[in-house]
Amino acid sequence: MNICVFCSSSDAVDKKYFVAARRLGKEMVKNSYSLVYGGANRGLMREIADSVLEGSGSVIGVIPKALHDYGISKNGLNELIITDNMRNRKSVMEKRSDAFIFMPGGIGTLEEAMEILTLRQLHYHEKPLVFLNTGGFYNKLMSVFRLMVKEKFMKKEFYKMFYIARDEKSAIRYIKNYKPVKTGGKWF
């Protein structure tokens, strides 16, 4: 099984996020899951890829040509896929993955999470989705989701489409035990 992990490529983030990336990589290897990720040699992306590779796990990197040309692609991966652009990158990552974990990250990570979540809401897939809530990182986003439900922009069953994990072990446990939950249409 391939788990796609969307996460930050910043080297400037707090150490706790690097620790979480390393622990997640170890949990993935321990449970025989391969990593699909953004292919960069920076930030949390590098940390989780290194963790999986050090445990003799498999890593597939997917990076757009423009970023590859900057020289930030990670060497030593089992497979590196270079796409024409960001949209193609996300499409390849989605197709190559059986589950998704959204670690803390910036606007790119948030955009990727919202696209995968939207595809789930519209029934394009029923793959497990997990927000890894390291240090409460996603608490404010969950507040925005609650407001959307309260104001009738989304149905309450929206919450059945993803899991908020407090740590790496619970994220992997959720994926391991995942059973798709049917949801109705997005419209009221």
Concise description?
By secondary structure, the protein is α/β, with parallel strands linked by helices. The protein contains seven helices and seven strands, in the order βαβαβαβαβαβαβα. Helix 3 links the parallel strand 3 and strand 4.
Report on the structure:
There is one protein chain. With 188 residues, the protein is α/β, with parallel strands linked by helices. It has helices spanning 15-30, 43-54, 65-69, 86-96, 107-121, 139-150, 168-176, and strands at residues 2-6, 34-37, 59-64, 79-83, 99-102, 129-132, 163-165. The protein has one domain (2-176): Rossmann fold. Strands 4-3-2-1-5-6-7 form a 7-stranded parallel beta sheet, with helices on both faces. Helix 1 (15-30) links the parallel strand 1 (2-6) and strand 2 (34-37). Helix 1 (15-30) packs parallel to helix 2 (43-54). 37% of the residues are buried. The mean pLDDT is 96.
Per DSSP, the total helix count is 7
The total strand number stands at: 7
Order of helices and strands: EHEHEHEHEHEHEH
Reported for the largest beta sheet, the result is:
7 strands, parallel
- Measured by DSSP, the beta-strand proportion falls in 15-25%
Gyration radius, in Å? 16 Å
Oligomerization status of the protein chains: single chain
Q: What would you call the shape? A: globular
N- and C-termini, Cα separation: 35 Å
The fold-level CATH name is Rossmann fold
Name the structural class. Answer: alpha/beta
Poorly predicted tracts of residues: none
Highest CATH level, the class: Alpha Beta
CATH architecture: 3-Layer(aba) Sandwich
Percent helix among the residues? 40-55%
User: How many domains make up the 3D coordinates?
Assistant: 1
The average pLDDT value, as a whole number, equals 96
Strand order of the largest sheet: 4-3-2-1-5-6-7
